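REQUEST FORM: STRUCTURE PREDICTION
Request ID: SP-0412
Submitted by: Lab K.M.
Chain count: 1
Length (residues): 652
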Amino acid sequence: MQTVMADFLAAPRPIRRVLIANRGEIACRIIATCRRLGLTAIAVYSDADAQARHVRLADQAVSIGPSAASQSYLSAERIVAAARASGADAVHPGYGFLSENADFVRAVTGAGLIFVGPDADAVETMGSKIAARRLAKETGVPLVPGYAGESASDEELARAAADIGYPVLVKASAGGGGRGMRRVRRPQDLAEALRAARAEAQGAFGDPTVFLEKLVRNPRHLEVQVFGDGRGGAVHFHERDCSVQRNHQKIIEEAPAPNLPDAVRDRLFAHALALTSAIRYAGAGTVEFVMEAGDDQPYFLEMNTRLQVEHPVTEEICGVDLVEWQLRQAAGLPMPLTQAQILPCGHAIELRLNAERPETGFMPDTGQIALLSAGPGLRFETGVESGDEVSSHYDSMFAKLIAHGADRAAALDRLLAGIDGTRIAGIGCNLGLLRDCVTARVFRRGEATTGFLDQVFPDGWQPDAERLLCLRGHLARAALGGGDSPLSRCDGFRVDAASAPGRALFRVEDDFGGADIALTLGPVPRVSGDGRDLPLDAQVPVLRQGGCYLASLHGLSVAGTVRPLAEARMAEQAGSDAAGSVPAPLTGMVTEVHVAPGDMVDRGATLAVMEAMKLVHTLAAPIAGRVVRVDVAPGQSVTQKSILFELQAEDT
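STATUS: Completed
RESULT:
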């Protein structure tokens, strides 16, 4: 490490201290490389992140303001001030937030600091999809047929769409992630799509400019990791396939791309390097392409002028540390390897773990993580640990699981074994969905396209019944062993005689609903319910938080309460006013309240609107009746499951 540190001190642009202008998983990832290189890692944090993992890991941490990203992680002024005050030599932007903001690059370099990434001109050029398309055309890189008039009127765009041929895609020139994007299948729908896309692009990126592309109906999403020396030289680290997406957000990535002809692969590399060299690009970047499944013609999509979320799969197959490469380039040091020395080995697959509930339309989840541990054999990149909070202020992704194997089959086997050994409790997570994705036949064959989720789960994803029944059985089994177990009661609860396996009936109410189950005790406990009878032979740890039990099995996490069935039925007969209670579905901020005490509402009427994790959620009336209580006001932050409204049925 001393030799590496000496390299940075003697570099043309010496670096000793690096401020990381980001948070969460990527901040922790950059800190790890800084520590290995002997560089001082400086974290920044908002009020919401004062106790966050990246703050705990860093050598130094600086507060940059309120929880809202607009007043902290998106404030170039605050971050530059923090860098200067902390004595940083360089600023690493990570990904997201200000990582592709040319004005931020200028602010950093204007303050006499080193920006770990490309110069502002490259960020600006490739950050505009219209400018990037123009450069690609000049460089001879194939483009999806489209129209990119920067100040085009609706009439001009309508004529262009007719020439291109429907269906078309309306896309925002700035930004990405699916925002400002609309599919248009008929001419009469274009005007509304343009209006909506412009409004969304203005709100997300501050730029309403849109352009048109021919809609590729069944595309593969391919990309090439590149690295430029800033003088026109560049190398590539081979390709990735990122076709499995939800709402244009990647959720599974792998390298190399399966079932890709070598001729297509060579064209991808040539096009990516041509673009990188044309703008004399410096540092890590990703050139993205789209290609119709079964075709052999990739089209340029965009270039991301930063490190990608999915960079670990490239690192795994190429045996490199891309963050180290970025820091070396920023310091003016030469690239460690030539193109001939960058040889892929094996296969790698990455899963993005999001705090969300796929079974309820991917509603984000927030709160405290009771347990988080990765299974054996996996690379685990995380921004949180057991006991940490997942905030409603930022993106829902909190960790990544990466598996590497000698080939794709070996990587998949290692990934599945690792998923089954991963434990997540206390918060909703998409790992159960991701496990079902990688075991799906079309994915195993390497034939996934961006329509994968709709193809495999046409009616939306729900957990398989057997896995859920087993989990409920483990919750009930844990409840039997607790200090207030029904077995220790002096009331009417009984199990069968000791001479035969005991059988107890329970009602389990959890994230996925309620179920009546039977737990049979004996050498091999069994659980029965919904016409199924299954052994409980897996060792599944169950945590208890108050009256709630938490467990996970094969990627599926459950939090639930357990009651003897007779007790649950008695409570049912006694009746309850809970049907008129409206709890907060997640932690966030209520932005609108539409009712007041005394108002009469229909079932399904909007009571309030709240925002969390960059998404908007509507709270609807569960019954028709009178509003008897309102415990929230606009602008108020609320915690998950807190009761916000009480309604009384009309016939009460």
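NOTES: The chain has five domains: 2-116, 145-214, 219-455, 466-574, 578-649.
Reviewed by: T.R.
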